[in-house]
Protein backbone atom coordinates (compact mmCIF):
# COMPACT_ATOMS: atom_id res chain seq x y z
CA UNK A 1 0.00 0.00 0.00
CA UNK A 2 1.21 3.48 -0.77
CA UNK A 3 1.85 5.42 2.45
CA UNK A 4 2.83 9.04 2.69
CA UNK A 5 5.44 9.87 5.28
CA UNK A 6 7.95 12.60 6.01
CA UNK A 7 10.87 11.18 7.95
CA UNK A 8 14.01 12.92 9.11
CA UNK A 9 16.81 12.10 6.72
CA UNK A 10 20.57 12.10 6.62
CA UNK A 11 22.28 13.35 3.52
CA UNK A 12 23.57 10.69 1.11
CA UNK A 13 26.76 11.24 -0.83
CA UNK A 14 27.02 11.25 -4.56
CA UNK A 15 26.90 7.45 -4.73
CA UNK A 16 24.54 6.92 -1.81
CA UNK A 17 27.38 6.81 0.76
CA UNK A 18 28.66 9.69 2.90
CA UNK A 19 31.17 11.66 0.86
CA UNK A 20 33.60 12.80 3.52
CA UNK A 21 34.78 16.23 2.40
CA UNK A 22 31.62 17.10 0.54
CA UNK A 23 29.52 15.94 3.44
CA UNK A 24 31.54 17.13 6.34
CA UNK A 25 29.96 19.88 8.29
CA UNK A 26 30.34 21.23 11.70
CA UNK A 27 30.27 24.21 13.74
CA UNK A 28 30.73 25.91 17.19
CA UNK A 29 32.09 29.39 16.90
CA UNK A 30 30.64 31.67 19.46
CA UNK A 31 27.27 33.24 18.83
CA UNK A 32 29.11 36.03 17.10
CA UNK A 33 30.86 33.49 14.88
CA UNK A 34 27.57 31.83 13.98
CA UNK A 35 26.06 35.16 13.06
CA UNK A 36 28.96 35.90 10.79
CA UNK A 37 28.29 32.66 8.95
CA UNK A 38 24.50 32.98 8.85
CA UNK A 39 23.12 36.42 9.55
CA UNK A 40 19.49 35.39 9.73
CA UNK A 41 20.18 32.88 12.47
CA UNK A 42 21.19 35.66 14.83
CA UNK A 43 17.54 36.63 15.24
CA UNK A 44 16.92 33.55 17.38
CA UNK A 45 15.79 34.16 20.90
CA UNK A 46 17.85 31.20 22.12
CA UNK A 47 21.56 31.98 21.92
CA UNK A 48 24.18 29.26 22.11
CA UNK A 49 26.27 28.88 25.24
CA UNK A 50 29.42 30.99 25.33
CA UNK A 51 32.71 29.31 24.54
CA UNK A 52 34.69 28.39 27.62
CA UNK A 53 37.82 30.59 27.99
CA UNK A 54 39.89 27.38 28.04
CA UNK A 55 38.81 26.43 24.47
CA UNK A 56 41.10 27.89 21.83
CA UNK A 57 41.07 27.45 18.08
CA UNK A 58 44.56 27.46 16.67
CA UNK A 59 45.43 28.52 13.19
CA UNK A 60 46.51 25.49 11.18
CA UNK A 61 48.64 26.35 8.19
CA UNK A 62 49.65 22.85 7.12
CA UNK A 63 46.97 21.65 4.66
CA UNK A 64 47.39 18.00 5.62
CA UNK A 65 46.94 18.76 9.29
CA UNK A 66 43.97 20.96 8.44
CA UNK A 67 42.33 18.09 6.52
CA UNK A 68 42.97 15.70 9.41
CA UNK A 69 41.58 18.16 11.90
CA UNK A 70 38.49 18.73 9.76
CA UNK A 71 37.93 14.98 9.32
CA UNK A 72 38.29 14.41 13.06
CA UNK A 73 35.79 17.11 13.87
CA UNK A 74 33.34 15.73 11.34
CA UNK A 75 33.45 12.17 12.66
CA UNK A 76 33.19 13.42 16.25
CA UNK A 77 30.15 15.51 15.38
CA UNK A 78 28.48 12.62 13.58
CA UNK A 79 29.16 10.35 16.54
CA UNK A 80 27.72 12.90 18.99
CA UNK A 81 24.64 13.27 16.80
CA UNK A 82 24.10 9.49 16.65
CA UNK A 83 24.45 9.31 20.44
CA UNK A 84 21.80 12.00 20.83
CA UNK A 85 24.22 14.57 22.28
CA UNK A 86 22.96 17.35 20.03
CA UNK A 87 24.54 20.23 21.94
CA UNK A 88 28.01 18.72 21.60
CA UNK A 89 27.35 17.92 17.95
CA UNK A 90 26.43 21.58 17.34
CA UNK A 91 29.69 22.68 18.94
CA UNK A 92 31.75 20.22 16.87
CA UNK A 93 30.04 21.10 13.59
CA UNK A 94 30.58 24.80 14.24
CA UNK A 95 34.27 24.15 14.96
CA UNK A 96 34.45 22.41 11.62
CA UNK A 97 32.99 25.48 9.89
CA UNK A 98 35.90 27.54 11.16
CA UNK A 99 38.05 25.32 8.98
CA UNK A 100 35.66 24.67 6.08
CA UNK A 101 33.49 27.75 5.97
CA UNK A 102 31.71 26.99 2.66
CA UNK A 103 30.70 23.36 3.14
CA UNK A 104 26.91 23.29 2.69
CA UNK A 105 26.58 19.94 4.45
CA UNK A 106 27.72 21.46 7.74
CA UNK A 107 24.97 24.05 7.52
CA UNK A 108 22.48 21.32 6.66
CA UNK A 109 23.53 19.24 9.67
CA UNK A 110 23.29 22.27 11.92
CA UNK A 111 19.83 23.09 10.62
CA UNK A 112 18.61 19.59 11.47
CA UNK A 113 20.22 19.73 14.91
CA UNK A 114 18.66 23.08 15.70
CA UNK A 115 15.28 21.64 14.71
CA UNK A 116 15.93 18.84 17.23
CA UNK A 117 16.85 21.25 20.05
CA UNK A 118 13.82 23.43 19.24
CA UNK A 119 15.61 26.54 18.10
CA UNK A 120 13.62 27.36 14.94
CA UNK A 121 15.35 30.65 14.20
CA UNK A 122 18.84 29.16 13.92
CA UNK A 123 17.45 26.12 12.08
CA UNK A 124 16.01 28.34 9.35
CA UNK A 125 19.17 30.43 9.08
CA UNK A 126 21.44 27.43 8.59
CA UNK A 127 18.99 25.71 6.21
CA UNK A 128 18.93 28.82 4.03
CA UNK A 129 22.72 28.95 4.03
CA UNK A 130 22.96 25.30 2.94
CA UNK A 131 20.56 25.90 0.04
CA UNK A 132 22.35 29.08 -0.99
CA UNK A 133 25.58 27.07 -1.34
CA UNK A 134 23.95 24.11 -3.10
CA UNK A 135 20.39 24.58 -4.36
CA UNK A 136 20.46 21.30 -6.32
CA UNK A 137 20.58 19.06 -3.28
CA UNK A 138 17.08 17.79 -2.49
CA UNK A 139 17.96 16.99 1.15
CA UNK A 140 18.93 20.60 1.73
CA UNK A 141 15.64 21.68 0.19
CA UNK A 142 13.65 19.27 2.39
CA UNK A 143 15.40 20.59 5.49
CA UNK A 144 14.65 24.15 4.40
CA UNK A 145 10.96 23.21 4.10
CA UNK A 146 11.05 21.61 7.55
CA UNK A 147 12.70 24.73 8.97
CA UNK A 148 10.02 26.92 7.40
CA UNK A 149 7.46 24.59 8.98
CA UNK A 150 8.80 24.84 12.54
CA UNK A 151 8.82 28.61 12.10
CA UNK A 152 5.13 28.48 11.08
CA UNK A 153 6.00 29.83 7.62
CA UNK A 154 3.78 27.26 5.94
CA UNK A 155 3.42 29.11 2.62
CA UNK A 156 7.19 29.03 2.16
CA UNK A 157 7.37 25.35 3.12
CA UNK A 158 4.67 24.55 0.55
CA UNK A 159 6.59 26.49 -2.10
CA UNK A 160 9.74 24.44 -1.45
CA UNK A 161 7.84 21.17 -1.78
CA UNK A 162 6.17 22.49 -4.92
CA UNK A 163 9.59 23.01 -6.51
CA UNK A 164 10.69 19.54 -5.40
CA UNK A 165 7.51 18.00 -6.86
CA UNK A 166 8.23 19.67 -10.19
CA UNK A 167 11.86 18.55 -10.17
CA UNK A 168 11.05 15.01 -9.01
CA UNK A 169 7.60 14.20 -10.46
CA UNK A 170 7.86 10.52 -9.53
CA UNK A 171 8.06 11.30 -5.82
CA UNK A 172 4.43 11.66 -4.76
CA UNK A 173 5.41 12.50 -1.19
CA UNK A 174 6.56 15.97 -2.24
CA UNK A 175 3.19 16.80 -3.75
CA UNK A 176 1.42 15.45 -0.65
CA UNK A 177 3.59 17.58 1.65
CA UNK A 178 2.88 20.63 -0.47
CA UNK A 179 -0.82 20.06 0.03
CA UNK A 180 -0.40 19.54 3.77
CA UNK A 181 1.51 22.80 4.23
CA UNK A 182 -1.05 24.67 2.15
CA UNK A 183 -3.74 23.29 4.45
CA UNK A 184 -1.76 24.49 7.49
CA UNK A 185 -1.48 27.90 5.85
CA UNK A 186 -5.31 28.03 5.69
CA UNK A 187 -5.24 27.80 1.90
CA UNK A 188 -7.80 25.03 1.76
CA UNK A 189 -8.88 25.55 -1.83
CA UNK A 190 -5.29 25.42 -3.09
CA UNK A 191 -4.60 22.35 -0.93
CA UNK A 192 -7.63 20.60 -2.45
CA UNK A 193 -6.32 21.27 -5.95
CA UNK A 194 -3.01 19.65 -4.99
CA UNK A 195 -4.70 16.63 -3.40
CA UNK A 196 -6.98 16.20 -6.42
CA UNK A 197 -4.01 16.15 -8.75
CA UNK A 198 -2.27 13.64 -6.48
CA UNK A 199 -5.36 11.41 -6.45
CA UNK A 200 -5.33 11.39 -10.24
CA UNK A 201 -1.77 10.03 -10.07
CA UNK A 202 -2.04 7.48 -7.26
CA UNK A 203 -5.71 6.61 -7.14
CA UNK A 204 -8.07 6.53 -4.17
CA UNK A 205 -6.09 6.33 -0.92
CA UNK A 206 -7.62 6.55 2.54
CA UNK A 207 -5.21 9.16 3.88
CA UNK A 208 -5.80 11.46 0.91
CA UNK A 209 -9.55 11.05 1.16
CA UNK A 210 -9.49 11.92 4.86
CA UNK A 211 -7.41 15.02 4.23
CA UNK A 212 -9.82 16.18 1.55
CA UNK A 213 -12.82 15.41 3.76
CA UNK A 214 -11.39 17.59 6.56
CA UNK A 215 -10.75 20.45 4.16
CA UNK A 216 -14.27 20.27 2.74
CA UNK A 217 -15.70 20.41 6.27
CA UNK A 218 -13.51 23.39 7.02
CA UNK A 219 -14.98 25.07 3.96
CA UNK A 220 -18.52 24.09 5.06
CA UNK A 221 -18.90 21.85 2.03
CA UNK A 222 -20.54 18.99 3.85
CA UNK A 223 -21.83 17.16 0.78
CA UNK A 224 -18.34 17.08 -0.74
CA UNK A 225 -16.92 15.81 2.54
CA UNK A 226 -19.53 13.06 2.65
CA UNK A 227 -18.78 12.19 -0.96
CA UNK A 228 -15.14 11.53 -0.10
CA UNK A 229 -16.18 9.04 2.60
CA UNK A 230 -18.73 7.46 0.26
CA UNK A 231 -15.88 6.75 -2.15
CA UNK A 232 -14.04 4.88 0.60
CA UNK A 233 -17.18 2.93 1.51
CA UNK A 234 -17.69 1.94 -2.14
CA UNK A 235 -14.10 0.76 -2.31
CA UNK A 236 -14.28 -1.20 0.97
CA UNK A 237 -17.91 -1.72 2.08
CA UNK A 238 -16.99 -3.98 5.03
CA UNK A 239 -14.95 -1.38 6.92
CA UNK A 240 -17.31 0.07 9.56
CA UNK A 241 -14.88 2.91 10.30
CA UNK A 242 -15.98 4.68 7.14
CA UNK A 243 -19.65 4.40 8.05
CA UNK A 244 -18.95 5.87 11.48
CA UNK A 245 -17.09 8.81 9.97
CA UNK A 246 -19.95 9.39 7.54
CA UNK A 247 -22.48 9.17 10.36
CA UNK A 248 -20.49 11.70 12.39
CA UNK A 249 -20.44 14.10 9.44
CA UNK A 250 -24.21 13.94 9.14
CA UNK A 251 -24.66 14.15 12.91
CA UNK A 252 -22.47 17.23 13.32
CA UNK A 253 -24.49 18.94 10.60
CA UNK A 254 -27.87 18.10 12.19
CA UNK A 255 -28.73 15.63 9.45
CA UNK A 256 -30.24 13.28 12.02
CA UNK A 257 -32.20 11.09 9.63
CA UNK A 258 -29.19 10.29 7.45
CA UNK A 259 -26.96 9.83 10.52
CA UNK A 260 -29.46 7.44 12.12
CA UNK A 261 -29.60 5.31 8.97
CA UNK A 262 -25.80 5.12 8.82
CA UNK A 263 -25.41 4.17 12.51
CA UNK A 264 -28.05 1.47 12.15
CA UNK A 265 -26.14 0.16 9.15
CA UNK A 266 -23.09 -0.06 11.42
CA UNK A 267 -25.05 -2.10 13.97
CA UNK A 268 -26.10 -4.54 11.26
CA UNK A 269 -22.41 -5.19 10.60
CA UNK A 270 -21.23 -4.83 14.22
CA UNK A 271 -24.16 -5.19 16.71
CA UNK A 272 -22.12 -4.07 19.75
CA UNK A 273 -20.34 -1.12 18.17
CA UNK A 274 -20.18 1.44 21.02
CA UNK A 275 -19.91 4.58 18.90
CA UNK A 276 -23.03 3.75 16.95
CA UNK A 277 -24.92 2.75 20.12
CA UNK A 278 -23.96 5.97 21.93
CA UNK A 279 -24.98 8.09 18.94
CA UNK A 280 -28.33 6.33 18.59
CA UNK A 281 -28.95 6.66 22.33
CA UNK A 282 -28.42 10.41 22.00
CA UNK A 283 -30.94 10.64 19.16
CA UNK A 284 -33.50 8.62 21.15
CA UNK A 285 -33.05 10.86 24.18
CA UNK A 286 -33.63 14.00 22.12
CA UNK A 287 -36.84 12.47 20.78
CA UNK A 288 -38.02 11.58 24.30
CA UNK A 289 -37.79 7.85 23.63
CA UNK A 290 -36.22 7.10 27.00
CA UNK A 291 -36.60 3.31 26.81
CA UNK A 292 -34.68 3.22 23.53
CA UNK A 293 -32.14 5.68 24.94
CA UNK A 294 -31.44 3.50 27.94
CA UNK A 295 -31.38 0.28 25.89
CA UNK A 296 -28.79 1.64 23.45
CA UNK A 297 -26.72 3.17 26.26
CA UNK A 298 -26.55 0.06 28.43
CA UNK A 299 -25.64 -2.09 25.42
CA UNK A 300 -22.70 0.22 24.79
CA UNK A 301 -21.55 0.17 28.42
CA UNK A 302 -21.76 -3.61 28.61
CA UNK A 303 -19.24 -3.87 25.76
CA UNK A 304 -15.72 -4.47 27.19
CA UNK A 305 -14.23 -3.18 23.93
CA UNK A 306 -15.74 0.24 24.57
CA UNK A 307 -12.86 2.24 26.03
CA UNK A 308 -13.21 2.61 29.78
CA UNK A 309 -11.92 6.18 29.74
CA UNK A 310 -14.74 7.16 27.39
CA UNK A 311 -17.23 5.46 29.68
CA UNK A 312 -15.87 7.29 32.72
CA UNK A 313 -16.04 10.61 30.87
CA UNK A 314 -19.67 9.88 29.95
CA UNK A 315 -20.70 9.04 33.52
CA UNK A 316 -18.94 11.86 35.36
CA UNK A 317 -21.54 14.54 34.53
CA UNK A 318 -24.00 12.43 36.55
CA UNK A 319 -22.01 13.49 39.63
CA UNK A 320 -22.94 17.12 39.08
CA UNK A 321 -26.54 16.30 38.13
CA UNK A 322 -27.31 14.42 41.35
CA UNK A 323 -27.99 17.62 43.25
CA UNK A 324 -30.73 18.78 40.88
CA UNK A 325 -32.18 15.42 39.81
CA UNK A 326 -32.22 12.54 42.28
CA UNK A 327 -32.98 10.13 39.44
CA UNK A 328 -29.52 10.76 38.03
CA UNK A 329 -27.95 9.00 41.00
CA UNK A 330 -29.75 5.77 40.11
CA UNK A 331 -28.81 6.07 36.44
CA UNK A 332 -25.22 6.92 37.24
CA UNK A 333 -24.84 4.00 39.62
CA UNK A 334 -26.35 1.62 37.05
CA UNK A 335 -23.88 2.78 34.44
CA UNK A 336 -21.00 2.59 36.91
CA UNK A 337 -21.97 -0.98 37.75
CA UNK A 338 -21.98 -1.85 34.04
CA UNK A 339 -18.47 -0.40 33.77
CA UNK A 340 -17.34 -2.65 36.65
CA UNK A 341 -18.94 -5.71 35.04
CA UNK A 342 -17.25 -4.96 31.71
CA UNK A 343 -13.88 -4.09 33.29
CA UNK A 344 -13.64 -6.06 36.57
CA UNK A 345 -9.87 -5.62 36.85
CA UNK A 346 -9.81 -1.87 36.22
CA UNK A 347 -9.26 0.26 39.33
CA UNK A 348 -10.84 3.30 37.71
CA UNK A 349 -14.14 1.38 37.30
CA UNK A 350 -14.43 1.00 41.09
CA UNK A 351 -13.19 4.55 41.69
CA UNK A 352 -15.96 5.81 39.40
CA UNK A 353 -18.66 4.04 41.39
CA UNK A 354 -17.05 5.15 44.65
CA UNK A 355 -17.17 8.76 43.47
CA UNK A 356 -20.87 8.36 42.77
CA UNK A 357 -21.48 6.98 46.27
CA UNK A 358 -19.31 9.64 47.91
CA UNK A 359 -21.08 12.47 46.12
CA UNK A 360 -24.40 11.04 47.30
CA UNK A 361 -23.18 10.84 50.91
CA UNK A 362 -23.19 7.03 50.88
CA UNK A 363 -19.79 6.87 52.54
CA UNK A 364 -19.75 3.21 53.61
CA UNK A 365 -20.43 2.06 50.04
CA UNK A 366 -17.83 4.52 48.73
CA UNK A 367 -15.22 3.08 51.13
CA UNK A 368 -15.78 -0.45 49.79
CA UNK A 369 -15.13 0.63 46.19
CA UNK A 370 -12.22 2.97 46.99
CA UNK A 371 -10.51 0.16 48.90
CA UNK A 372 -11.08 -2.17 45.95
CA UNK A 373 -9.61 0.46 43.61
CA UNK A 374 -6.38 0.84 45.61
CA UNK A 375 -6.06 -2.94 45.84
CA UNK A 376 -6.00 -3.06 42.03
CA UNK A 377 -3.87 0.05 41.51
CA UNK A 378 -2.06 1.59 44.47
CA UNK A 379 -0.39 4.35 42.43
CA UNK A 380 -3.34 6.78 42.32
CA UNK A 381 -2.96 9.36 45.08
CA UNK A 382 -6.40 10.84 44.37
CA UNK A 383 -8.08 7.57 45.40
CA UNK A 384 -6.02 7.37 48.59
CA UNK A 385 -6.99 10.96 49.28
CA UNK A 386 -10.67 10.08 49.02
CA UNK A 387 -10.17 7.25 51.52
CA UNK A 388 -8.49 9.60 54.01
CA UNK A 389 -11.17 12.23 53.53
CA UNK A 390 -14.00 9.76 54.19
CA UNK A 391 -12.31 8.26 57.26
CA UNK A 392 -11.83 11.78 58.63
CA UNK A 393 -15.50 12.58 58.00
CA UNK A 394 -16.54 9.40 59.76
CA UNK A 395 -14.22 10.18 62.72
CA UNK A 396 -12.61 6.78 62.15
CA UNK A 397 -9.23 7.76 63.58
CA UNK A 398 -7.70 4.28 63.54
CA UNK A 399 -8.35 3.66 59.84
CA UNK A 400 -7.39 7.26 59.06
CA UNK A 401 -4.03 6.68 60.73
CA UNK A 402 -3.58 3.35 58.94
CA UNK A 403 -4.30 4.78 55.48
CA UNK A 404 -2.43 8.05 55.99
CA UNK A 405 0.65 6.10 57.17
CA UNK A 406 0.58 4.12 53.91
CA UNK A 407 0.14 7.33 51.91
CA UNK A 408 3.09 9.09 53.57
CA UNK A 409 5.31 6.13 52.68
CA UNK A 410 4.12 5.85 49.08
CA UNK A 411 3.72 9.57 48.41
CA UNK A 412 6.16 11.34 50.78
CA UNK A 413 5.86 14.64 48.92
CA UNK A 414 2.09 14.84 49.16
CA UNK A 415 1.06 17.43 51.74
CA UNK A 416 -2.37 15.95 52.50
CA UNK A 417 -0.98 12.56 53.53
CA UNK A 418 1.07 14.11 56.32
CA UNK A 419 -1.78 16.44 57.25
CA UNK A 420 -4.28 13.61 57.70
CA UNK A 421 -1.67 11.60 59.59
CA UNK A 422 -1.33 14.55 61.95
CA UNK A 423 -5.11 14.76 62.35
CA UNK A 424 -5.40 11.02 63.08
CA UNK A 425 -2.65 11.07 65.70
CA UNK A 426 -4.16 14.14 67.34
CA UNK A 427 -7.58 12.50 67.60
CA UNK A 428 -5.91 9.41 69.11
CA UNK A 429 -4.07 11.71 71.55
CA UNK A 430 -0.70 10.75 70.09
CA UNK A 431 0.33 14.38 70.33
CA UNK A 432 4.12 14.12 69.67
CA UNK A 433 3.42 12.00 66.55
CA UNK A 434 0.80 14.52 65.46
CA UNK A 435 3.27 17.38 65.87
CA UNK A 436 5.89 15.51 63.78
CA UNK A 437 3.44 14.75 60.96
CA UNK A 438 2.07 18.29 60.83
CA UNK A 439 5.54 19.84 60.70
CA UNK A 440 6.50 17.48 57.87
CA UNK A 441 3.35 18.56 56.04
CA UNK A 442 4.49 22.18 56.26
CA UNK A 443 7.89 21.20 54.85
CA UNK A 444 6.69 19.16 51.86
CA UNK A 445 7.65 20.48 48.46
CA UNK A 446 4.38 20.18 46.52
CA UNK A 447 2.87 23.54 47.44
CA UNK A 448 2.13 22.86 51.14
CA UNK A 449 -1.59 22.97 50.50
CA UNK A 450 -3.58 26.12 49.98
CA UNK A 451 -3.60 29.07 52.34
CA UNK A 452 -6.63 27.90 54.31
CA UNK A 453 -5.29 24.37 54.72
CA UNK A 454 -1.93 25.66 55.99
CA UNK A 455 -3.87 27.76 58.49
CA UNK A 456 -5.65 24.58 59.63
CA UNK A 457 -2.28 22.86 60.10
CA UNK A 458 -0.99 25.69 62.29
CA UNK A 459 -4.25 25.66 64.23
CA UNK A 460 -3.98 21.93 64.92
CA UNK A 461 -0.33 22.37 65.82
CA UNK A 462 -1.41 24.98 68.34
CA UNK A 463 -3.81 22.46 69.89
CA UNK A 464 -1.17 19.70 69.94
CA UNK A 465 1.53 21.92 71.43
CA UNK A 466 -0.96 23.06 74.09
CA UNK A 467 -1.76 19.43 74.92
CA UNK A 468 1.96 18.76 75.50
CA UNK A 469 2.45 21.90 77.57
CA UNK A 470 4.61 23.66 74.96
CA UNK A 471 2.79 26.96 75.38
CA UNK A 472 5.24 29.20 73.52
CA UNK A 473 5.11 26.97 70.44
CA UNK A 474 1.35 26.71 70.81
CA UNK A 475 0.93 30.50 70.86
CA UNK A 476 3.27 30.91 67.89
CA UNK A 477 1.31 28.33 65.86
CA UNK A 478 -2.00 30.05 66.60
CA UNK A 479 -0.52 33.40 65.59
CA UNK A 480 0.61 31.90 62.27
CA UNK A 481 -2.82 30.38 61.71
CA UNK A 482 -4.49 33.75 62.28
CA UNK A 483 -1.99 35.50 60.04
CA UNK A 484 -3.18 33.23 57.20
CA UNK A 485 -6.87 33.21 58.17
CA UNK A 486 -7.61 36.15 60.51
CA UNK A 487 -11.31 35.40 60.86
CA UNK A 488 -11.09 31.72 61.80
CA UNK A 489 -13.59 31.77 64.67
CA UNK A 490 -12.51 28.41 66.09
CA UNK A 491 -8.85 29.43 66.32
CA UNK A 492 -9.80 32.76 67.87
CA UNK A 493 -11.86 30.91 70.48
CA UNK A 494 -9.32 28.17 71.29
CA UNK A 495 -6.34 30.54 71.43
CA UNK A 496 -8.16 32.98 73.67
CA UNK A 497 -9.43 30.21 75.95
CA UNK A 498 -5.98 28.68 76.43
CA UNK A 499 -4.53 32.11 77.24
CA UNK A 500 -7.26 32.64 79.82
CA UNK A 501 -6.56 29.28 81.44
CA UNK A 502 -2.97 30.40 81.94
CA UNK A 503 -4.01 33.90 82.91
CA UNK A 504 -1.75 35.37 80.23
CA UNK A 505 -2.35 38.18 77.70
CA UNK A 506 -5.94 38.49 78.90
CA UNK A 507 -6.53 41.70 76.97
CA UNK A 508 -5.51 39.93 73.72
CA UNK A 509 -7.63 36.94 74.71
CA UNK A 510 -10.68 39.16 75.35
CA UNK A 511 -10.28 40.84 71.96
CA UNK A 512 -9.99 37.52 70.08
CA UNK A 513 -12.92 35.96 71.94
CA UNK A 514 -15.09 38.98 71.23
CA UNK A 515 -14.22 38.72 67.53
CA UNK A 516 -15.16 35.02 67.47
CA UNK A 517 -18.60 35.95 68.82
CA UNK A 518 -19.01 38.61 66.16
CA UNK A 519 -18.33 35.89 63.57
CA UNK A 520 -20.58 33.26 65.22
CA UNK A 521 -22.89 35.07 67.64
CA UNK A 522 -25.00 31.99 68.38
CA UNK A 523 -22.17 29.74 69.60
CA UNK A 524 -22.65 28.81 73.27
CA UNK A 525 -19.06 27.51 73.43
CA UNK A 526 -17.76 30.90 72.34
CA UNK A 527 -20.04 32.61 74.90
CA UNK A 528 -18.60 30.35 77.59
CA UNK A 529 -15.05 31.26 76.55
CA UNK A 530 -15.82 34.96 76.56
CA UNK A 531 -17.49 34.72 79.96
CA UNK A 532 -14.51 32.82 81.36
CA UNK A 533 -12.05 35.43 80.07
CA UNK A 534 -14.13 38.20 81.65
CA UNK A 535 -14.12 36.16 84.86
CA UNK A 536 -10.32 35.89 84.79
CA UNK A 537 -10.21 39.67 84.31
CA UNK A 538 -12.42 40.03 87.43
CA UNK A 539 -15.25 41.51 85.38
CA UNK A 540 -17.75 39.26 87.15
CA UNK A 541 -21.02 41.00 86.26
CA UNK A 542 -20.21 40.94 82.54
CA UNK A 543 -19.09 37.35 82.87
CA UNK A 544 -22.42 36.48 84.49
CA UNK A 545 -24.38 38.12 81.63
CA UNK A 546 -22.56 36.07 78.97
CA UNK A 547 -22.71 32.84 80.95
CA UNK A 548 -26.45 33.19 81.50
CA UNK A 549 -26.89 33.95 77.82
CA UNK A 550 -25.10 30.70 77.00
CA UNK A 551 -27.13 28.71 79.53
CA UNK A 552 -30.34 29.62 77.74
CA UNK A 553 -29.39 26.72 75.47
CA UNK A 554 -30.40 23.22 76.56
CA UNK A 555 -27.09 21.93 75.21
CA UNK A 556 -25.19 24.33 77.48
CA UNK A 557 -27.26 23.30 80.50
CA UNK A 558 -26.06 19.74 79.93
CA UNK A 559 -22.40 20.78 79.70
CA UNK A 560 -20.63 20.16 83.06
CA UNK A 561 -17.78 22.59 82.31
CA UNK A 562 -20.16 25.47 81.61
CA UNK A 563 -22.11 24.70 84.76
CA UNK A 564 -18.91 24.71 86.79
CA UNK A 565 -17.82 28.01 85.21
CA UNK A 566 -21.17 29.56 86.13
CA UNK A 567 -20.74 28.39 89.70
CA UNK A 568 -17.29 30.01 89.82
CA UNK A 569 -18.75 33.30 88.58
CA UNK A 570 -21.59 33.19 91.12
CA UNK A 571 -19.22 32.52 94.01
CA UNK A 572 -17.14 35.57 93.12
CA UNK A 573 -20.37 37.59 93.05
CA UNK A 574 -20.88 36.38 96.65
CA UNK A 575 -23.83 34.11 95.78
CA UNK A 576 -22.32 31.15 97.60
CA UNK A 577 -25.43 28.96 97.89
CA UNK A 578 -26.29 29.34 94.23
CA UNK A 579 -22.65 28.70 93.28
CA UNK A 580 -22.70 25.47 95.32
CA UNK A 581 -25.91 24.46 93.55
CA UNK A 582 -24.25 24.74 90.09
CA UNK A 583 -21.06 23.02 91.22
CA UNK A 584 -23.12 20.09 92.42
CA UNK A 585 -25.13 20.12 89.18
CA UNK A 586 -21.86 20.07 87.21
CA UNK A 587 -20.77 17.02 89.20
CA UNK A 588 -24.08 15.29 88.45
CA UNK A 589 -23.56 15.96 84.71
CA UNK A 590 -20.20 14.23 84.78
CA UNK A 591 -17.58 16.69 85.98
CA UNK A 592 -15.13 14.90 88.30
CA UNK A 593 -12.11 17.15 88.70
CA UNK A 594 -10.25 17.35 92.02
CA UNK A 595 -10.81 21.11 92.00
CA UNK A 596 -14.57 20.73 91.71
CA UNK A 597 -14.67 18.21 94.57
CA UNK A 598 -12.80 20.66 96.81
CA UNK A 599 -15.10 23.53 95.81
CA UNK A 600 -18.12 21.52 96.90
CA UNK A 601 -16.48 20.22 100.06
CA UNK A 602 -15.04 23.55 101.18
CA UNK A 603 -17.89 25.68 99.76
CA UNK A 604 -15.47 28.11 98.18
CA UNK A 605 -13.79 28.86 94.85
CA UNK A 606 -10.44 27.14 94.53
CA UNK A 607 -7.79 29.17 92.71
CA UNK A 608 -5.77 27.44 90.02
CA UNK A 609 -2.62 27.82 92.12
CA UNK A 610 -4.31 25.99 94.97
CA UNK A 611 -5.26 23.05 92.78
CA UNK A 612 -1.71 22.26 91.79
UniProtKB/TrEMBL annotation:
What Gene3D superfamilies does the annotation carry? Tetratricopeptide repeat domain
- Presence of keyword Methyltransferase: no
Matching entries from InterPro entries are given as:
TPR-like_helical_dom_sf, TPR_rpt, Ycf3
* Designated name of the protein: Tetratricopeptide repeat protein
* Alphabetized Pfam families for the sequence: TPR_15 (PF13429), TPR_16 (PF13432), TPR_8 (PF13181)
Which ranges does the UniProt record give for the TPR repeats?
Answer: 240-273, 347-380, 455-488
In terms of PROSITE patterns, this protein maps to: TPR
Write down the PANTHER family for this protein, in alphabetical order: TETRATRICOPEPTIDE REPEAT PROTEIN 6, UDP-N-ACETYLGLUCOSAMINE--PEPTIDE N-ACETYLGLUCOSAMINYLTRANSFERASE SPINDLY-RELATED
Keywords on record: Repeat, TPR repeat
Amino acid sequence: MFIFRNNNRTLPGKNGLPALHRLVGRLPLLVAGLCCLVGTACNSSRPLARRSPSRQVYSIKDSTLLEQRADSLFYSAERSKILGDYRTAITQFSDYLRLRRNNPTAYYELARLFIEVRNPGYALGFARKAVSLDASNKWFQITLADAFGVNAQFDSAAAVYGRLATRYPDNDEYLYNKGMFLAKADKSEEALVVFDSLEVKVGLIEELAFQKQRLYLKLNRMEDAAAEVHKLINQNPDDVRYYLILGDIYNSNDRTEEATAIYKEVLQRDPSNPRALIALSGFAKKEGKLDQYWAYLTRAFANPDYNIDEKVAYVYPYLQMQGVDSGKLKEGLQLAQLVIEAHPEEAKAYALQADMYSQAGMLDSALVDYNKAVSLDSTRFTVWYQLMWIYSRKDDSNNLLKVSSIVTERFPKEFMGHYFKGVANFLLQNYPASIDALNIALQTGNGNGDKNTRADVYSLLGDAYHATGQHQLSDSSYDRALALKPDDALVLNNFSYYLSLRGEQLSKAESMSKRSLELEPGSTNFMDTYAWILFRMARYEQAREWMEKALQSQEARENPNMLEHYGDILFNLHEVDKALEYWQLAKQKGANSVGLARKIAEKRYILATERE
